[in-house]
Amino acid sequence: MQKKIQNKLSTADKAFHGWKNVPFAERQKLLKKLAKILKANTEKFGKIITTEMNKPISQSIAEIEKCALMTDYYASAKNVLKPEKVETEFRISEVHYVPKGVVFGVMPWNFPFWQVLRFAVPAILAGNTVVLKHASICFGSGNAIEKIFMEAGFPKGIFQNLEVGHAEVKELLEHEIIKAVSLTGSEKAGGEVAATAGKNIKKSLLELGGSDAFIVLDDADLAQAAESGAKARLANCGQACNAGKRFIIQKNVEREFMPLFIQEYRKYIPGDALDPNTKIAGMARPDLADGLEKQYRKALNNGAEIILPLERISETAFMPGLIQVKAGNPILQEELFGPLGMVMIAKNDAEALEFANYIPFGLANAVWTKDRKRQQFFIDNLDSGTVSINKETSSDPRLPFGGVKSSGYGVELSLLALKEFVTAKTVVGN
Predict the structure, then answer these.
(1) How many CB atoms lie within 10 A of CB 32?
(2) What pLDDT is attached to residue 128?
(3) At what angle do helices 139-151 and 42-53 cross, to 10 degrees?
(4) What tens digit of pLDDT does each residue of 321-367 get?
(5) For a Cys-Cys bond, which of 233, 299, 316, 415 suits 304, CB 3.0-4.6 Å?
(6) Does any domain span residue 348?
(7) Kind and range of the H or E element at 57?
(8) Is 397 contained in some domain?
(9) Domain that holds residue 301
(10) For residue 125, which of 18, 203, 10, 19 has the smallest C-alpha distance?
(11) pLDDT tens-digit profile of 130-178?
(12) Does residue 398 sit within a domain?
């Protein structure tokens, strides 16, 4: 291991032993300052995101604004980590929540600030320190976040960016100073990290891929669903784990809904990522665009029909595509990370549910229906960490976010996230 990286781990460990004793309210004051820095520099940090991974600048700025909102939420959050008294026959009977130590974050390129901060802020508020391995194209974002923590007045070593590659992840995770890991990324990367963490008896949290269903039933507001559906698929050039990817349409509204959906979809025309009016730019890297093209051909070779062709117009940019897919197409077992949507036609609610659940993933699904009983049917039966009703899926600092099945385990966001990287210590006696 490089001496520089070893030194950063030692700094994080040393910082933890002081930080864990800082009162919760004092930590929150520093978060308040961090949120102010984010709010005051939305354009500056947004440009870093756009330059690194090609997100339209308006969406990059919105990402920074959301980070500030989330940080403010935790800066004012109830302290759910106070010792809890439990009624027993003993004089002392309590549960204490003890931070684990140095937590290792392995984070992706698609939301370079949001993914990092939504993991790091609650972990740090809970008394841990954080070291980050960011995606290789996002070292600028990682270094900027480290500087923000320093500028906000956090002690040295509370948050540090490590400029390392995938090859170093296993060695870092095996290091005795690292006590836990949070990974947002692919199913493959998650499996490897979880295996290493498990072998070394370390806590892991995984937020992995998704192939979310966007279900439109025959009593939905079709115009609103069409607009929301296009945004759900094509925001961030379709590069989101919780994007709407499979549009399951009830058969008796297919003829009415699809022209509305296509009309909305066609409004997303690739443009200059730094133009505030651009709604969609290119993908983050040419190799990712190559991979999406291969998946497109695979879907077509297995019977998918073209609704709107996926047309590549540059190294990274596409005219967004839509294909109609039937159950059994092997592409349904994969995540499409890019501007390509899949349409499925379901006879009724039961078949729509079957289509939605019959995949390896279970992150977030959306259902469009005005009927409360139908809503409840899907709430009760969809296999996913989130169910959105009459809206596209989006994360909210106040609500837990996580998945089931191959979409991972553990909770980010909400007050529940404060307990992800702590140990519940029982104190009992007379």
Answers:
(1) 14
(2) 98
(3) 160
(4) 999 999 999 999 999 999 999 999 999 999 999 999 999 999 999 99
(5) 299
(6) yes
(7) helix 57-75
(8) no
(9) 212-389
(10) 19
(11) 999 999 999 999 999 999 999 999 999 999 999 999 889 999 999 999 9
(12) no
